[in-house]
Amino acid sequence: MKLVCLGLNHETAPVEVREKFALSEAALERETEMLLSAADVLEGVVLSTCNRTEYYAVVNGGSGVTELEDWICQQREYTGAREGLFYNHHARGAAEHLCRVASGMNSMVLGETEIFGQVKQSYKRSLESGATKGVLNKLFQRAFSVGKKVRTHTAIQEGATSVAGASVELAEKVFGKLQGSSVMVIGAGEMSRKTARALQSRGASSVMVTNRSFDKAIDLAEEIGGRAVPFQGWEEELAHLDVVIAATGAPHFVVKPAHIEAVRRKRKFRPLIMVDIAVPRDIDPAVGEIDEVYLYDIDTLQEMADQARKRREEQLLLCEEIIREEIDKVTLPAVND
Questions:
Q1: Model pTM?
Q2: Of 16, 38, 207, 265, which sees the most CB atoms within 10 A?
Q3: 50 assigned to active site
Q4: Does 3.10.450.10 match the CATH number of domain 163-301?
Q5: Of 5, 50, 99, 319, which one is the catalytic site residue?
Q6: The CATH number of 2-158+314-328 is which of 3.40.50.300, 3.40.50.720, 3.40.50.1820, 3.30.460.30?
């Protein structure tokens, strides 16, 4: 019996590949069930975010990694190149990797906070479905303890600690201060909520929210003191916007070149900042070819993350020390063979 972790993230795969492996909230439960039905898999947790898809499993016999990789690719109908795409960890290495993920040390934006909640939600889903037992229960509980300790005893969170915060910083970097600017957030999920709050805190004078479910758009708009826009009419607002941040769960492009072309004259060709933080992407890359549009997808945030990383790298050694000390307290005899 052995503990393994197999995954891909922003360091190993570009966004166009990550989006092929990304799983919606609704699909994660089914994916976990199918993982447990695979041969030799005794326990399992599936984690999928905009920057990573990872499988934690306790397998019986063999390394399990090759079989798991084949299974994942078959599930996603992926036939592209695999070299360097996936990473894998075993036993203690898998445990330490999970702790780094939960602590925000392995994120695009070093020290981001969203990942902690995402890991907890993934674990909760598997726990409630009976997909975890002694090994993964013990491991994930320890990882949560490590994540809290890292954030309490280090400065890993200084600066932009989330993709939402980094996207707002990017808009400011290109557009200038957001005071007096008009912004639209497409999508009303948790990422959109965090982004909208960040926009509000930076002084955006007008924040609009649009979503396929108008009730959710209304709820978020009321929460931030903004305005809800029906999804059927969001294109009309483009004539007045300065910044658009897209973060829906749609499986296809929501914003296309035709949407921008239709309002260019009304906008008098003013600059338009567009930030796409969704995976799969919400904004057609061809939109960025329009002269006055400045389009940035989630991979662009890596540049900002690198700047923050330079300020925080000295904290990583302290974080690693905490992880080693905490993992030393965990006895996993069944997975250390």
A1: 0.68
A2: 207
A3: yes
A4: no
A5: 50
A6: 3.30.460.30
